[in-house]
Amino acid sequence: MKILAAIFALVLLAASAGVAQADSVPPGDPKIILAGAGNSTGVGETFFFGSDDFQTPSEGNPFIDFQNVSGVNFDSLTITILNAAFPDGALTCGVTAFFSSCTADPNGKFVTYFGENGDNFNGIGSGSPSSELLAFFFPRFDFEGGNSHFQLQFVGFPLDPNNPIEFEGQANVTTPEPSVALLCSVGLLGLAVFNKKLRPVATDRA
Fold this sequence. Notes:
Layout lengths: L1 H23 L6 E6 L4 E3 L2 E5 L12 E6 L8 E5 L10 E4 L5 E4 L5 E5 L16 H7 L11 E7 L10 E6 L6 H21 L8
Parallel strand pairs: 1-6, 2-4
Antiparallel strand pairs: 1-9, 3-10, 4-9, 5-8, 5-10, 7-8
Helix pairs in contact: 1-3
C-alpha cells in the first residue's frame, strides 16, 4: 500500500506540473492567445489556415479573425500546428475571452481552450455569414445568439514567408485533460491491487 501511495503522490505532482505549464513557460516561447474579434471569416467545427493568412499590424501581434458559422456552440477549441519541423515543447497559450482556461501540449504541437466561468465565459456562439456585415457596422452587438467572432493572436512565432506555418482548428474535441487521464489510470491501478489482495488463494483439495 505504501508503494501505491507513493505512485499516487508522484502522479499528482506530474499532473499539477502539466496544468501549470501554460503559465510557467519561459519568456520568448511562441504563444497563441484567444480573444474577441469584429468582422471575420466564417468557419465550421474544423478549419485550416496558415501563417501567410495572418494580419500583421504595425504595432502589436500578428492575428487572424474567424466567425463560428457551424450552427453549434464551440464548447472547446483546439489549435494544432501541422508542421512536423516546428520545435517540440516551444508553445504556450493565453485566453482573454469565451473560455476560462487553456492548456498547452507538452510536446508543443497544440493548445486547447476550454471551461465556462459565469456569463462572460460561455464558449464561442454560432452566427451566420450574413451577420458579418452587421458586425462590421455594429461591432458591440451580436445578432446571432452569442458572440461568434473570435481572434487568434500569435506572439513570438518565427514567421517566414517562404516557409509558412500550417494550423488546424477543431472545436468540441472530447478528449480528457492529461491530468484527468493520469488520475483515472492511478484509480484503476489501485482497484486492481485492492482486488488482488482480496482474491482468495486457491487451495488444492485431495
